[in-house]
Amino acid sequence: MKIFPVILAGGVGSRLWPVSRAYFPKQFHNLLSDKSLLQETLLRGAAVSEVAPIIVANEEHRFLVAEQCARLGIVWSRLILEPEGRSSAPGLAAAAYAALALDPDAILMMLASDHMIDDTEVFAEDAQQAAQLARDGFLVTFGIQPTGPETGYGYIETDGTRGAQAVVSFTEKPARDTAQGYVDSGRYLWNSGMFVMSARVYIEELEKFEPDIAAAVASGMEDAEADMDFLRPSAAFLQSPSISVDYAVMERTERAMVLPVSFGWSDVGSWAALHDISPKDADGNLLRGDVLALDTKDSVVLAKHRLVGVTGLDNAVVVETADAVLVAAADRLDGIRDLVQRIGAAQRDEHLVHREVRRPWGSYEGIGDGDRYQVKCISVLPGASLSLQMHHHRSEHWIVVRGAARITCGEKVFTLGENESTYIPRGTKHRLENPGKIVLKLIEVQVGSYLGEDDIERFDDIYGRQDKI
What we know:
There is one protein chain. This protein has 469 residues and is of the alpha+beta class. Helix content is 24%, strand content 32%. The strands form eight sheets. Strands 1, 2, 3, 4, 6, 7, 8, 9, 10 and 13 form a ten-stranded mixed sheet that branches. The chain is globular and about 75 Å long. The two termini are 40 Å apart. The mean pLDDT is 95.
């Protein structure tokens, strides 16, 4: 029986706005080390099993996942792209069907892509113990010893004995007084949201309790289409209800077991959580970037692009990015989600993208705009190429500031070096490529009546994109 690491890489992480945004959420950021949370999760999976992971991701994150896997030299067995997010129960079901096609006795180790675990060796030992229980037909969840009456986590009631044991009950995000009672009793553990189970047993239990999910995902996976290195379930997947593994199966099955674990864990779900698990200065502050803090205690201050000065703050959060700044009281961080919703309702895009926007070929960053024009800095990776495309409402001026650019403009193909420029007329097919060994950087000036990213008609794309990104 092989252990298949299953990494659910969806999610937005809106409580970590403005760093985490819909198109570049927290799991892709280096919040705790020189690797992203997703990369740390991939490495944990590799510490448990030599089997290539199954990754379930959102369509808009497909190239981010591919890039971060490539940096680690990790090749997935399947990268499943959900047409729309349907929470963890359908996502795990898709992975289960994929694993069963490779091994009828597959064991799934479901990991969230955005958690912190402080001891990979201990984690691997606990995972192997959980896998043995899964081979015996149990559905195992990791239970975390509570350090306080946290109201943002689910709780698992145990019988108070040591070691792996049957689950007595689950409670989702209790009120503070209730959570305090759970902690005081010594019989409750936090629900980590990580599971180890047989793929076959999970599908059997899903068919028993949520047959609509099992049927929709089975149909979607049966008719799934391979696209480059990605696997896209058919539209039948969308018939699945959106529900978590906990609600769909774990709270209803008689096979649920909890394994108390001893490694340090956090879901890195908020700025307060990041503060708790990060090194701090003598005043209890988490300070990153170009920060000057005076008479400030127990606060988070992050500066991404410029000097941030704070004075006279206690229990506060200040986060600066290129296009947005968050200032919040540490005890009012739940309001960030409402703030993000307000941004979307105002038809702004600071909840979706950063000023620097990632693409499979590199990135672009807006550096100026005005009436009928905008200016971008474009970075193209060595050997990468933008699609052959055309714009209906704008023309473009390109100035190379670093590296070499191979340019297709209409019927002409030519190369530009540093400090050389060209003009792309509106309505002309064009392509930008980097034939060199260093990152190509150029300044793009767009002029026209409409400058939106959706003004693009693709004719050829080495990344197989059919959408506007």
